[in-house]
Amino acid sequence: MKPSRALVPYLRTAPLLWLFLLVGGVAASYAGWRELGVIGLAQGPLRLAHLGLSVWIIQRLTQGQSEPDPQVRRLWPEIVILTLYLLWLALIFSQQVRRLDFSHYAPGYSMMVQFLRHNVAGPLISAFGWEGWNAARLNALLLNLTTQMLIPLIPFLLLGYGLRSLGFRSRWWWLALPLSLVTLLFTIVAGGIITWTRLPIAFLFNLGISGLTGEFWARGLLQTRLERVLNHPLHGAVLAALIFGLMNVPANMRLHGSDWPLVIALCIGPQALVGFGLGYLWLKTRSLAPGALWQAFGGSLV
Questions:
Q1: Pick from 261, 268, 225, 213: nearest CA to 244
Q2: Can you give the C-alpha Rg of the chain in angstroms?
Q3: Are 253 and 96 in contact (CB under 8 A)?
Q4: Diameter of the chain by CA atoms?
Q5: Interacting residues of 101 by C-beta distance below 8 A, sequence separation 6+
Q6: d(Cα 296, Cα 282) in Å, to the nearest integer?
Q7: Fewer CB within 10 Å, N- or C-terminus of the chain?
Q8: Is 216 within 8 Å of 288 (Cβ atoms)?
Q9: What is the pLDDT of residue 49?
Q10: CA distances from 4 to 33, 263, 284 (A)
Q11: Percent share of the chain, pLDDT over 70
């Protein structure tokens, strides 16, 4: 019998998920305390409340609906492909920390950057007359679409997958609307500073920079196969969320240096908790659209 995707029955017999939520909440509180002082201790409860309300909305609005599980053709060869890809991607992410920049060890990356910058982004920036923030966002958009979507997409297309079977469909896109509203409310309660004038353009850029790209490799590819390896959808969602969070180590080091307790706390706390919410949304919809829109909106608020 296929393991249930329902979260509430699973919680009764799921020490892994309880441990994940406990450690994630404590880590979020610790990170909040380090960044904001005593008031930051509320970050853990707020993050867990945000996740709980988001999961409840997803459950309620998908109740009685069932989406087919994505097809997995050759599990272990695909796991090998994904492992090699994630190692390559981790090398690229390391460039965010100058003293730990290993991106030159990522095969083909330097040539790809030069080609996109001079032959694609450069002409577009000149044509639009963009500079500063807009020009930097366009460069990041083209690079992320290539490294985090096109590169991992090619081998799976060669293995015979279609775009729909990999999650590229618009079904359930509207779920991002109530989830984004909840994210907005919690951001305001947590004291986040929102740049309203930049929000629309930031959302459009983030949809390609982190929304669709991150959802594709983290949920459509990685989580789907971890579900099979661990023989349980929610176990796969937990492990994929942790990997998703830990891939933010270089970004956190860029902001906080070698303060490893804070860097790791951010990864396994707020960032992994966000990853689980996105992973649960993927379990219930098997569509990249709502998660991509929700993640892009959340990333545009900070």
A1: 268
A2: 19
A3: yes
A4: 58
A5: 94, 95
A6: 15
A7: N
A8: yes
A9: 96
A10: 37, 34, 11
A11: 95
The Cβ of residue 254 has, within 10 Å, a number of other Cβ atoms equal to 14
User: pTM of whole model > 0.85?
Assistant: yes
Burial of 100 (0-12, 13-18, 19+ CB in 10 A): middle
Task: Give the pLDDT of residue 1.
Answer: 39
Judged against a pLDDT cut of 90, whether residue 268 lies above it is answered with yes
User: By C-alpha distance, which of 240, 246, 252, 249 is closest to 276?
Assistant: 240
Give the pair of three-digit tokens for residue 31. Answer: 């990170």
List Cα–Cα distances, 223 to 26, 230, 295, in angstroms.
24, 10, 16
**Are the beta carbons of 3 and 234 closer than 8 angstroms?**
yes
Taking the CA of residue 7 as centre, how many other CA atoms within 13 Å lie in the half-sphere pointing to its CB?
24
* Type of residue at 77: P
Residue 284 DSSP SS3: helix
Cβ atoms < 10 Å from Cβ of 218: 24
Residue with more model confidence, 177 or 196: 177
- Token pair for residue 8? 């509430």
Contacts of 260 (CB under 8 A, 6+ apart): none
Confidence of residue 238 (pLDDT cuts 50, 70, 90): very high
Measured CA distances, 75 to 88, 160, 219, 235, 239 (Å): 20, 13, 15, 17, 17
Angle, CA 73 vertex, CA 68 and CA 77 arms, to 5°: 135
Q: How many helices (H) and strands (E) does the chain have?
A: 17, 0
* Average pLDDT along the chain: 92
Pick 11 or 113 by higher pLDDT: 113
pLDDT at 131 over 70: yes
CA distance 219 to 280: 9
